[in-house]
Sequence to fold (227 residues):
Amino acid sequence: NAGVTQTPKFRILKIGQSMTLQCTQDMNHNYMYWYRQDPGMGLKLIYYSVGAGITDKGEVPNGYNVSRSTTEDFPLRLELAAPSQTSVYFCASSYGGRGQTDTQYFGPGTRLTVL
Amino acid sequence: QKEVEQNSGPLSVPEGAIASLNCTYSDRGSQSFFWYRQYSGKSPELIMSIYSNGDKEDGRFTAQLNKASQYVSLLIRDSQPSDSATYLCAVLRGSSASKIIFGSGTRLSIRP
Fold:
């Protein structure tokens, strides 16, 4: 199993450009998440999904969109990139989202710079 | 007040000693608590979770929870250079996965 994979690993965008960060998991997990991590900071939840066709906002959703058409894939779309979106983006997945027994598995991350 | 607070460090501990990492949280309704380790440039990985007051041990790691004091800690015994990393405390505020709040992390450095 590859676990959680993310592409690309690195990307530089110009202000106003758009892009999609890809995330795929092969563990048949129901829950998937997108986080951003700014330098020296913890993780902030952008969006999450509890299953195909179901998504919901996290703590910092503005400027982002997601979709979940399959169990495996959870892409994150950035429209009109801004310098404030410069960050490392992590995708994660978990089996059932039940906090007491659920472990989140993280992808390797995408380092995004907006200039 | 931040929802989950950690001392940013760096915390420097000699090899073989006990490293003690602390975390406080503001929401008394918090139910589950997690410690993640993150090496520089890598993604976080879960090392401990704790749900009830008291201690939970796993190998060299012990998590301690005191809900009355809203305090959770991680002890690392016999610290090794490979333990040098940033340790993130995470708190689940309710039954929803969306309410996992991460602290900003404590940088731990184990000196030989």
About this structure: Chain B has no helices and eleven strands.
